[in-house]
Amino acid sequence: MGQRSLIYSFVARGTVILAEYTEFTGNFTSVASQCLQKLPATNNKFIYNCDGHTFNYLVDDGFSTLLTSDLFDFLVMIHDLVLFIICTFARLVCFNVFRKF
């Protein structure tokens, strides 16, 4: 069994990429960004194939998570983690945790 690798990933809000990661060179950023512009806003999973790579998108509550890798389940895990972090931060802001004493 060969080693599986994360090729490219990002998290976006709407059509704005908030964070991205890759250790490879290529046109991943431009292809992924072009596909992001065409994604419907509905909560769903989308798969696009381009230049021999599969771009797996998960759209949920306005956030889009992309994963170009061998494992789609990894995308779901990353998406859930990002939503957990965002929701936790929002709760901290709502409870005014960051106010000055």
UniProtKB/TrEMBL annotation:
Under the cellular component aspect of Gene Ontology, which terms does the record hold? endomembrane system
Alphabetical list of InterPro entries matching this protein: Longin-like_dom_sf (IPR011012), Longin_dom (IPR010908), Synaptobrevin-like_transport (IPR051097)
Keyword Iron-sulfur: yes or no? no
Q: Which residues form the Longin domain?
A: 10-70
Give the way it sits in the membrane.
Single-pass type IV membrane protein
The record's principal subcellular location, in a coarse class, is membrane
Known Gene3D superfamilies for this protein? Longin domain
Localization terms from the record:
Endomembrane system
Q: Where would you find the membrane-spanning parts of this chain? A: 74-98
- Does the entry feature the keyword Membrane, yes or no? yes
Task: List keywords of the entry alphabetically.
Answer: Membrane, Transmembrane, Transmembrane helix
Q: Which PROSITE patterns match?
A: LONGIN (PS50859)
Family, according to the entry, reads as follows: Belongs to the synaptobrevin family.
Q: What is this protein called?
A: Putative vesicle-associated membrane protein 726
This protein's species is Morus notabilis
